[in-house]
Design a protein that fits this description.
Layout: H1 8-15, E1 28-30, E2 36-38, H2 39-46, E3 51-53, E4 60-62, H3 75-90, H4 105-119, E5 148-153, E6 165-170, E7 176-180, E8 185-189, E9 195-200, E10 202-204, E11 207-208, E12 210-216, E13 222-227, E14 232-237, E15 243-249, E16 258-261, E17 266-273, E18 280-286, E19 292-296, E20 305-310, E21 316-320, E22 325-329, E23 335-340, E24 352-357, E25 363-367, E26 372-376, E27 382-387, E28 393-398, E29 404-408, E30 413-418
Antiparallel strand pairs: 1-2, 3-4, 5-30, 6-7, 7-8, 8-9, 10-11, 12-13, 13-14, 14-15, 16-17, 17-18, 18-19, 20-21, 21-22, 22-23, 24-25, 25-26, 26-27, 28-29, 29-30
Helix pairs in contact: 3-4
Length: 422
């Protein structure tokens, strides 16, 4: 007699389980290869070494300055584990992990359906699903026009290569500055993708930090936020990597974004504190000397704001990858509106990350969980999908010539899109 097929509930549980301890994820951390494990399991596995192999794919992983705790949280996995446990506890009959007895088949499948429907809004793959795998994007409107693009990079430590490019910004002269968190450096490219130079993200002396994001000021110098083993910093470099100044930030162990209001010469830095699920997010506004001017966004309940930008009118736009909204404030920090929300439909944002604005004030958002780059008008109304050909779009920036630069965290590449507004 053939063995009964595994229950669907068991398969879902396996997707939400750590491959080391085989239990539901606890404080899940995602590695550069996109595999997820419990924080404590990784700490035991790494045994305080600077580098170790991923238990699944065997890729060599170099830990950030904060160690395992400094790896990005897999917030979706944490959320879905909690939701899974709540759903299972509420089911009226057989445990979801048990194979159904014939007598209770109807009730059991009803329970499975309940779990699947409750979890259908978010899946937990080892890595983001590539576009074009069957029905994944089947109900989405496909754009007839595909913008021209130039792509460069690839995974590695060499010149012109990346290990998860986290941030990008473009100078008025057309130089592209790409933030390499794992490589602890900034690489500079032409608009054709040719390497111009690179420099390490030095804090002081020989101490380097893992950079999270970067933004250019009105003099063409670079503000970079990131962290070392002991602290978080905002460091001001000239375009060749010489440290001009720096100031300390609260050590949080979580990713930050940075933007510059070139009119007021204010530096905006995102900050997330607390432990999951009780996260608290805000935007800190600094003067260049490190004086805290004010705080923005405390009243909207942001959970994990990462990227942000300032438009031509001085409005502040912030993406929150946990709440899955973009929040918009005026130049004085007054809340104006928000848009997005979790989902894969037009105008919805599943893991919104980098964002920027074009000359007309349209808002462009990299949506990692949907593998898309989206365009909205200045009121937050959805306009179009710019591209759905990237695996995990992470950061975006506009050139003065109107080209769009996008980093792909999974493919470890940078793409420059032409004529994307058509």
């Amino acid at each position: 007699m053939a063995a009964a097929p595994s229950s669907l509930g068991t398969q879902i549980r396996e997707e939400l389980s750590c491959s080391i301890c085989l239990e539901l994820f606890t404080r899940p951390k995602v590695m550069p290869c996109q595999h997820t494990f419990c924080q404590d399991c990784l700490q035991d596995h790494a045994e305080r070494r600077g580098t170790f192999q991923c238990p699944i794919c065997r890729r060599q992983v170099r830990l950030p300055p904060l160690g395992v705790a400094g790896l990005p949280d897999n917030l979706m996995a944490a959320s879905m584990c909690e939701r899974f446990q709540v759903i299972v506890q509420s089911l009226p009959s057989a445990p979801i992990t048990a194979a159904p007895a014939a007598k209770g088949t109807r009730q059991h499948h009803g329970n499975q359906r309940q779990v699947v429907q409750s979890l259908s809004s978010a899946s937990i793959p080892a890595a983001p699903v590539a576009r074009g795998t069957g029905h994944h994007h089947g109900n989405q409107r496909q754009e007839e026009h595909q913008p021209q693009k130039v792509t460069f990079g690839g995974e590695g430590l060499g010149a012109g290569q990346f290990n998860g490019p986290w941030g990008v910004t473009v100078s008025d002269e057309g130089e592209i500055f790409v933030v390499g968190w794992e490589n602890q450096r900034i690489q500079v490219f032409t608009l054709q993708g040719k390497v111009v130079r690179e420099f390490p993200t030095v804090v002081s002396g020989e101490e380097d930090m893992g950079p999270h994001d970067a933004a250019l000021d009105r003099e063409g110098n670079l503000w970079v936020v990131g962290g070392t083993d002991s602290a978080d910093f905002a460091v001001h470099y000239n375009k060749h990597g010489r440290v001009l100044r720096k100031f300390d930030l609260q050590r949080t162990g979580r990713a930050r974004g940075v933007a510059v209001d070139t009119r007021r010469n204010h530096i905006f830095i995102t900050q997330t504190t607390g432990d999951w699920p009780n996260l608290h997010g805000e935007v800190l506004v600094f003067r260049p000397d490190g004086t805290l001017e004010r705080t923005v966004g405390q009243q909207q309940g942001m959970k994990h704001p990462w990227y942000l930008t300032v438009d031509r009118e001085g409005n502040i736009l912030v993406s929150d990858e946990v709440n899955q909204y973009v929040y918009v404030y005026n130049e004085d920090g007054l809340f104006l509106f928000q848009f997005g929300g979790e989902g894969s439909g037009e105008g919805q944002l599943k893991y919104p990350l980098g964002l920027c604005t074009d000359r007309a004030g349209n808002i462009i958002v990299a949506v990692g969980g949907n593998s898309r780059v989206e365009m909205f008008d200045k009121t937050g109304k959805f306009l179009k999908h710019i591209t759905a050909d990237l695996k995990w779009p992470q950061a975006v920036a506009m050139t003065t010539q109107g080209q769009l630069v996008v980093t792909d965290r999974v493919e470890h590449k940078v793409s420059i899109f032409q004529n994307f507004w058509i």
